[in-house]
Amino acid sequence: MKIISILSIILLFFSVNIYSQNYDNQKFEKMNNDIDSLKELIKPGKSKFLLRGYSHSGIVITDENSSFVGGSFNPIFIYKQSDRLMFESELEFELEDRNLNIGLEYANISYLLTKSLTVRFGKILLPFGIFVDRMHPAWVDKFSSKPLGVGHGGILPGSDIGIELRGASYLGSSKINYSFYVMNGPRLNEGDEEPDEAGQLHYDNFPDNNKNKAIGGRLGFLPLSNSSLEIGFSGMYGKVGSGNSQYADVASKLYAIDISYIQNLPFMQSVLDVKAQYSGVITDNANYRNYDNLVNPDAVYTFTNQNSTTFAQIALRPAMVNNKILRNFEIAGRYSDLITPEGSKWASNLNQWEFSLNYWLNWRTVFKLSYRTTEGETEHTEGAESPLGKAFFFHWAIGF
Amino acid sequence: MKNKRKSLIFSSFGVLILVMLISLLSNCNVSNEIKAKSGAQLWGENCLRCHNNPSPETFSDVEWDVAVMHMRIRANLTDEEAKKIAKFLKTAN
Questions:
Q1: Are residues B16 and B56 located together in one domain of the fold?
Q2: What is the rounded CA–CA span in Å between residue A66 and residue A62?
């Protein structure tokens, strides 16, 4: 009787165990099916969207005043319609002179023609040198302000509307990248509306002020197999005067040489980053009306319209040291200059130094403490803020 | 003036043909050293040319697809480089 009872208990134990195992298997099978169904539900299609961008703000202290500045927000919309077709656009919301400025930095469609050639249509950042195309986002730029020659009051093109072919290829262990474009091109300020800027080029030329289209491009050569060194040559040519004016045949030639070098320095446990660019802008000479001559309203003046700008910067970050705090610091220094035509009403000969101590919270968030000093001569417009003098900045920038 | 315009048109076509030729011939001439590069190595070499290397855990796989295509065009990456870098970045997810 005792044996029968023990056998019954053992039998019951195994039965329960087998039942429970079957139940678990069924449960797991059901869970797997549920997961597969969910995967099917959330399986991404070919069209994908990504919102990225950056923002920055800070405080600037000059000889005359101090103010919180910046307050810029730049969302970037990227829509990948298929493996070959993509749309991207960057907006800029910026506080300036008590107003909110909204700008369209770029908006274009890209189509991958071959493995090494892409065509882009629309408003694009011009690959003229390296600053605008690669270094303009505040979280990429290692300094609180832009170098002389770039942006407001500068001579370099930013973005333009047209069509571009671009890509990259290997030649053995070396690499080249190339861009060739046809754009509306720059527009000559003929002095009718802004006499103090007669002879300057403006790059917001839409619709185009003439039938001519500017052509240009950039060729980059990376001779080392680790792509650490790049030397680039850029050029652009086009007529810039209005088609129906006396300036119809005035043309401009723009050129730039740039160099970029990134190198790990094991003996300093640091990363060295060197970048430099020299650019020239030459516009045909023309006669501009001299509005300052009140005696003779038909008086004109002219000047040799040659401009140049340079920047060279170096940055060092001890990214390979063990100390978690120290490796996030970075020191950077930059020299830039700007020479605009003597005899023009916007003549200037400026040079600038900027030094920055940066702290990286992560790979795309940075605090910058910068000191900038600008010297030289300038015919800056009365009432406008003088570019000369010293300035301290404390800026933060975040990429997202 | 007409000669100037003609020379411009010819030089434009010259550049265009050069670009086409380069793009057609390029993939026949890649060294073994370049072919052997891993996605991690390419990520380390290329991203740092403009900005800090992005952490692979920043985006999901789907988001990396878009971000890498964006950077392929912006940073002039080749097709092979973009594919290897995307594969590496997705390993964190």
A1: no
A2: 6
Structure-token pair, residue A158:
């930013």
Closest CA to B82 of B50, B37, B29: B37
Are both B74 and B45 inside the same structural domain? yes
Same domain, B50 and B74: yes
B88 and B63 in a common domain? yes
CA distances from A275 to A91, A135, A319, B67 (A): 27, 10, 19, 25
Is there a contact between A175 and A168 (Cβ–Cβ < 8 Å)? yes
The parent domain of residue B18 ranges over 1-29
Give the DSSP letter string of A63-96: SS-EEEEEEEEEEEEEEE-SSSEEEEEEEEEEEE
Residue A298's φ and ψ, nearest 5 degrees, are -95, 5
Residues of A with Cβ-Cβ distance to B45 under 8 angstroms: 226-228
Which residues in chain B have their CB less than 8 angstroms from residue A363's CB? 51-55, 58
Q: Tell me the three state secondary structure of residue A222.
A: strand
> What three-state secondary structure class fits A268?
helix
Domain assignments of chain A as residue spans, ordered by start: 1-36, 54-399
CA–CA separation, A314 vs A279, rounded Å?
18
Residue B43 CB coordination number (10 Å): 20
Domains contained in chain B, number: 2
Give the tokens for residue B73.
Answer: 């065009």
pLDDT at A384: 63
Looking at the structure, tell me whether residues B37 and B16 fall in a common domain.
no
A170 touches chain B (CB under 8 A): yes
* CATH architecture for the domain at A54-399: Beta Barrel (2.40)
pLDDT in tens, A33-64: 888 777 777 777 788 999 999 999 999 999 88
Q: Which residues contact A269 (CB under 8 A, 6 or more apart)?
A: A318, A319, A320, A321
Q: Which residue of B has its CA nearest to A400?
A: B58
- pLDDT tens digits for range A280-293: 999 999 999 988 87
The tens digit of pLDDT for each residue in A309-342 reads 999 999 999 999 999 999 999 999 999 999 999 9
Please give the residue of chain A at the shortest CA–CA distance from B54: A363
Residues B40 and B5 in one domain: no
Q: Which of B12-21, B28-37, B39-48 has the lowest mean pLDDT?
A: B12-21
CA quadruple A260, A262, A268, A270: dihedral positive or negative? Answer: positive
| Residue A180 to residue B79, Cβ atoms within 8 A | no
Write a three-state SS string for chain B: CHHHHHHHHHHHHHHHHHHHHHHHHHHHCECHHHHCCCHHHHHHHHHHHCCCCCCHHHCCHHHHHHHHHHHHHHCCCCHHHHHHHHHHHHCCC
How many whole angstroms separate alpha carbon B27 and alpha carbon B65? 23
Q: Report d(CA A121, CA A34) in Å as an integer.
A: 44
